[in-house]
Design goal:
By secondary structure, the chain is mainly alpha-helical. The chain contains 16 helices and 4 strands.
Length: 416
């Protein structure tokens, strides 16, 4: 397969995946907008009632907390300086540790009752209740008593703010997840200080990056004997290539260069950023699920969103792995072009597949969440029931890597 045809196949698959992702994202945004607008509209409609309830609760809280403080001071559970202090009193009272002989002080029974909130904390809670109460009362008054205010635009504005805020939260979570993935990979690779191997691998990466006219990513060495390599990051200059000792020891010089060039190609092609963008609809659905789990009493409100999310999730789950698998072919081809040897890349894949299978049972730290970052997928674990069907789904439909045999065959067909 020629380079032009290879990239044409990639762009066609990306176009299909992008169209499905954008259409799915629009469907989700529309459903979220409707739900957020309706919720915001009814909250303002019930604003005077809800606001009045919050203000009454705040008014009742003041004497109750005051009585709690008086009892605590009278019984000797706390000192006045503790209540006026900046920090909360620890549930394990200092008097327990010091053996204070005062009656009722430092006893282990009912520690929560002997740990009253500070004045600062109560003032903060009361301030939030009062502000929310007055805000709802005034919002409801403006919505229904001022003739110039139309309730419908107010609901639309509220829906827009809700959708934008939730989308921003998901985007922030995606950026944070990249650090989490790197931490998971570093734990699996068991990153260690190995100056000799690190210097050697870094020298090779620097040379390959120079040939590709690319910034040089950092290198980390893992103690794992599984032959693995992975790249994490959105831009080459701010990324890291993780290499295990098993990989360095298993490959010869040409094969090692080919694998490093493969990972560098992923960085140069911005594969991490592309895949993150394509999976964004699925990330929004996951974020919505997390939100519902935290507010299960209001889960019925999100039912329309989940109805719309089902086909979006299925389409995205099918389209994105199709692109991921083809990007592996592109990275293989780019590595072969960079090193000048398709045979070296093919030989490296064969060696990694063989050594991975031999070492896999001795190191079981590889998870499916990080397997997508490897050069080859982990060996398949046979199942007693429906093994063929499950393997087809996990490897051919939802898998992020093509069959190693197919990759090797494509590379060998490119040799003259």
């Amino acid at each position: 397969m020629g380079t032009r045809r290879l990239y044409l196949g990639l762009w066609l698959r990306m176009a299909v995946a992008l169209a499905l992702s954008l259409s799915g994202l629009l469907v989700l945004l529309a459903a979220e907008f409707v739900v957020a607008g309706v919720v915001f509209f009814f909250l303002l409609g019930l604003g005077p009632v809800l606001g009045g309830m919050l203000l009454v609760f705040a008014a009742l809280l003041v004497p109750l907390v005051g009585l709690y403080w008086l009892v605590s001071l009278r019984r000797g559970w706390v000192e006045l300086s503790d209540l006026l202090g900046r920090m909360e009193t620890d549930t394990s009272s200092p008097n327990t540790q010091t053996g204070d002989p005062r009656p009722g002080v430092g006893r282990s029974d009912d520690p929560w009752l002997r740990n009253p909130p500070t004045v600062r904390r109560v003032a903060r809670v009361l301030g939030l209740l009062v502000c929310a109460g007055f805000g709802l009362v005034l919002g409801g008054a403006l919505l229904y008593r001022v003739p110039e205010v139309d309730p419908l635009p107010v609901g639309l504005v509220g829906g827009t703010l809700g959708v934008v805020g939730f989308t921003g939260w998901v985007v922030y979570g995606e950026f944070r997840s990249r650090s989490s993935v790197r931490a998971d990979l570093e734990a699996e690779y068991d990153i260690v200080s190995d100056p000799e191997r690190e210097h050697e691998v870094q020298r090779r990466v620097r040379r390959l990056a120079g040939q590709a006219d690319s910034p040089v990513p950092n290198v980390e060495i893992g103690a794992s004997y599984l032959p693995r390599a992975a790249s994490v990051g959105y831009r080459p200059g701010e990324s890291v290539i993780l290499v295990s000792r098993g990989l360095v020891d298993s490959l010869d010089d040409e094969e090692l260069d080919a694998v490093l060039a493969h990972e560098l190609a992923h960085l140069l092609n911005r594969d991490a950023a592309v895949m993150t963008g394509l999976t964004f609809p699925r990330s929004k659905i996951s974020g919505l699920s997390s939100l519902v789990l935290k507010t299960d009493d209001a889960a019925i409100l999100f039912f329309p969103v989940f109805v719309a999310a089902i086909p979006v999730y299925i389409a995205n789950r099918l389209a994105v792995p199709m692109v991921a698998r083809y990007r592996e072919y592109v990275a293989d081809d780019a590595a072969a072009e960079l090193t000048g040897s398709h045979a070296a890349m093919a030989s490296a894949l064969v060696t990694l597949d063989r050594e991975y299978a031999a070492q896999y049972t001795q190191d079981l730290r590889v998870g499916w969440s990080t397997a997508a970052f490897g050069v080859v997928p982990p060996p398949w674990e046979e199942r007693r029931v429906l093994d063929g069907t499950i393997r087809f789904l996990r490897r051919r439909v939802f898998g992020t890597h093509p069959r190693t045999e197919a990759r090797v065959e494509r590379l060998r067909s490119r040799d003259p």
